[in-house]
Specification:
The chain has 157 residues and is an alpha+beta fold. It has 2 helices and 11 strands, in the order ααβββββββββββ. A hairpin with an 8-residue loop joins strand 2 and strand 3. Keywords: Signal.
């Protein structure tokens, strides 16, 4: 019986720990420095195009956030090494009033537009058709708004 109780307790702790770790994400001073340092450690030669980082307010709070497009990275001569049929990796960072940034999402997308819909700025992300429940055809557009620290899907076309 004691062994069963310990086994259940271990399972509960394993399930709870990842959630607790996510809630305690530490702030970084600048996503550009953080991301470039990461790739400079991963690649013998890392080159970053002008579009590697875009700074804009993505959650309508007046603070300038950051979006990193890993497709604008050339690592050891290979452009966009993480890009595939689903697109390239984009990392979305929010700036907080206290200073610093934290990552709220990573998405494998073809690109995005920042557009105004019903008075709010939203992200219209171009994605693989399967994200809109299609097997082929033109890329789909998933429109999302950032509410607080979460992406909220508005539509899929």
């Amino acid at each position: 019986m004691k062994t069963l109780v310990l086994a259940v307790l271990n399972i509960v702790l394993l399930l709870a720990m990842p959630a607790a770790a996510l809630g305690q994400q530490s702030l970084i001073s600048d996503p550009e420095i953080y991301e470039k340092k990461h790739f400079q450690e991963q690649c013998k030669t890392a080159e970053f195009a002008d579009g590697f980082i875009i700074r804009q307010d993505i959650n309508n709070d007046g603070l300038i956030d950051a979006v990193v497009d890993e497709g604008q990275l050339t690592c050891d001569g290979q452009k966009g090494p993480q890009c595939n049929d689903d697109g390239c990796t984009y990392n979305f960072y929010l700036q907080v009033a206290e200073g610093g940034y934290f990552m709220i999402a990573t998405a494998q997308i073809y690109g995005y537009d920042f557009v105004q819909r019903f008075g709010n700025m939203v992200l219209a992300m171009k994605m693989h058709p399967r994200f809109c429940d299609r097997t082929e055809g033109d890329p789909c557009t998933v429109t999302a708004r950032v509410r607080g620290t979460k992406f909220v899907t508005i539509s899929k076309k």
